[in-house]
From TrEMBL:
Superkingdom assignment: Bacteria
Chain ranges of the CsgH-like domain: 33-119
Designated name of the protein: CsgH-like domain-containing protein
Length: 127
């Protein structure tokens, strides 16, 4: 799985900025499934959300984990489970909040059709 580390906020403002990357999926072309990580900063907190988009109905499993450190404190938060996404509709599969000034790393992946997709803000890829 790919791990993303950030020491300074990449996105500012109250709007969610999503960075999407195309990845392959079993039984479809290699540009059909996308997974995204979006950030939103507001009132001293950063919300980090994982989402999935597909041009066809899809179901699978996800793992969404964040490690953060701020002001001498640290935390590890993990979420995971099954998801389903209708064709052409993005679905949120995990969301967490941390201090906006925290250093953090995100580990977000999905499994569809037996293939694992590692999702990052810089792209997504099969592993």
């Amino acid at each position: 799985m790919t791990q993303l580390t950030r020491t300074l906020p990449l996105f500012f403002g109250v709007g969610i900025v999503a960075i999407a990357a195309s990845v392959g999926m079993a039984s479809s072309d290699t540009n059909s499934l996308r997974c995204d990580i979006a950030e939103q900063n507001q009132n001293g907190m950063r919300t980090i959300t994982g989402s999935v988009f597909s041009p066809q109905d899809v179901s699978g499993e996800y793992r969404f984990a964040i490690r953060s450190a701020s002001n001498g404190n640290s935390s590890n938060i993990s979420q995971g489970g099954a998801f389903s996404a209708l064709a052409n509709e993005a679905v949120s599969v995990g969301q967490m909040m941390i201090n906006a000034d925290a250093r953090y790393s995100v580990d977000f992946s999905i499994i569809v059709g037996g293939q694992t997709v590692a999702c990052t803000q810089n792209g997504a890829r099969f592993t």
